[in-house]
Design brief:
Blueprint (H helix, E strand, L loop, with lengths): L48 H26 L22
Length: 96
């Protein structure tokens, strides 16, 4: 077997693990420059991330509140629970 250097194969020494170039792996892969995404694109730090996080958090909270209210409204038990359960607090079935 003949040993060759990376330069002889047309490979730069930085991509073969040599000390030249950026440390920590290979460079970023090519990516589109104009990409819309909720997080701001590829490897981005959006300027308004706090506002965006608040908006998404409020939306999730509103959706979960709707699901909770609808679930409590539709809840029915055919058998009375043997032990106390938390849903007895908000269920209409157990109100006197």
């Amino acid at each position: 077997m003949v040993w060759t250097r990376p330069e002889q194969l047309g490979i730069s020494s930085s991509s073969s693990g040599g000390s030249g170039g950026a440390s920590g792996g290979t460079p970023h892969k090519p990516y589109p420059k104009h990409v819309w995404s909720p997080s701001g694109g590829w490897w981005a730090q959006p300027k308004q991330w706090k506002r965006n996080t608040l908006i998404v958090g409020a939306g999730i909270t509103a959706f979960m509140a709707f699901v909770f209210v609808k679930s409590a409204e539709l809840e029915q038990r055919t058998l009375y629970p043997r032990v106390w359960i938390p849903s007895m607090i908000w269920s209409k079935q157990f109100k006197v």
